[in-house]
Design a protein that fits this description.
- The structure is a single chain.
- The protein has 204 residues and is of the alpha+beta class.
- Helices cover 33% and strands 18% of the residues.
- The protein has four helices and seven strands, in the order H-H-E-E-E-E-H-H-E-E-E.
- Strands 1, 2, 3 and 4 form a four-stranded antiparallel beta sheet that branches. A three-stranded antiparallel beta sheet has the order 6-5-7.
- Helix 1 crosses helix 2 and helix 3 packs antiparallel against helix 4.
- The longest helix has 21 residues.
Length: 204
């Protein structure tokens, strides 16, 4: 069931999202050769809690960390560990924040040191997929308009998309309906309405 949010609830989700954005800004300088994802996870926990919020992922379905830290070929749900980051790695950080009972969810992927041209292209095209998907978020469009934007742009550059995981609604809880896949399938295709809040997650 899709749960619409009123303007006051959306403002609270936006406040949660602002804390999340500030967390990424706080973590960015730590993403360098020699850092560990466990160090980054600890820094995320300390910053989020210093803002009066809680990490949404910590303890969710028994997840043991505040951050999903996925290095190189790991798609999502990488668990932070003590392996030092190396020059040429790419690191995806997936984070959620709960503030005053309202949830936000976002991910960013960072180059570590100097990365290959192919890695640079992957990061650039994925960001372009996100931008094209956001352009489709307007009342009257459908979920598949978002999916189509991601899939077609990725495909036009020779990339495939991940089918096992997708974007989703967010706000009252971490994962809500509707699901927002990165490909065109036969699943639900609800029309977008004012009051929907989505976490759009291109994975290519």
């Amino acid at each position: 069931m899709i749960r619409l949010k009123n303007p006051q609830e959306i403002e609270k989700i936006r406040t949660s999202g602002r804390i999340l954005a500030r967390t990424f800004e706080h973590l960015a300088p730590l993403i360098k050769v020699g850092s560990t994802t466990r160090d980054i996870d600890g820094a995320a926990y300390r910053f989020i809690t210093s803002c009066g919020a809680k990490p949404a992922f910590l303890g969710y379905l028994d997840y043991p960390a505040s951050v999903c830290a996925s290095v190189n070929e790991v798609v999502i749900h990488g668990i932070p560990d003590d392996r030092p980051l190396e020059d040429g790695d790419i690191l995806s950080l997936d984070l959620g924040v709960v503030y005053d009972g309202f949830y936000s969810d976002s991910a960013r992927t960072y180059p570590v040191g100097t990365v290959s041209e192919s890695a640079q292209k992957l990061l650039a095209v994925t960001l372009e997929c996100l931008e094209r998907a956001i352009d489709q978020v307007k009342p009257g469009n459908r979920i598949h308009d978002i999916s189509r934007a991601v899939f077609h742009h990725a495909d036009s550059h020779g990339y495939g998309v991940v089918h096992q995981f997708c974007g989703h609604g967010v706000g009252f809880s971490l994962h809500e309906d509707p699901q927002v896949p990165n490909y065109l399938g036969s699943g639900p295709n609800p029309r977008l309405k004012p009051g929907m809040v989505l976490a759009i997650e291109p994975m290519i």
